[in-house]
Description:
This protein is α/β, with parallel strands linked by helices. The chain has helices at residues 19-28, 59-67, 86-94, 105-114, 129-139, 144-159, 173-185, and strands at residues 8-12, 33-35, 38-40, 54-56, 71-77, 80-85, 98-102, 119-125, 166-169.
Amino acid sequence: MLVKGNFLIIISGPSGAGKSSITSKLLSSSKNLDFSVSYTTREKRINEHESNDYIYVSREKFEELIETNSFLEYEIVHGHYYGTPIQPINEAMGFNHSVLLDIDVKGASTIINTNHFDCVSFFIRPPSIEDLHQRLVNRGDMKDHEIEKRVAEAKNEIMKSKYFDHLIVNENFEDCFNEIKRIIVGL
């Protein structure tokens, strides 16, 4: 897949919607698409790798980066800071690459509303709240109260999906991926 031009391609949606899986497949099938690795203050999960999934920093370091305007956007999500660093995006754009962001709904909304870059935004939605709940349970990395909190938050996030360029229901992964790919290739 060849992406034309310089775009921010935003993949967003609730926890468990399939954002990370879609992002991984888009990256592996494209030659000129870079991934924006976010900074976070949360603990690293078992299957995550430093600099591939997130850049893990202390709260103090994150706040220093805020002070130096190092982020395109940042938010507190589930009690932890998450932020999109601006320098790697500028560098990728300088090489005529588009940049893929796997980002929460609040952060995506901030970027969409700032108009710093041309962007196309996708809201990935599970087929139902019940399906989302089951996906989070199947992950096996959250306690019941955390799952309930994420499901409640997902209901609010889904109401914001109308502000995105594209709403894609992830009922079947391959169909969801192919729809996103079709749109990106047509940019």
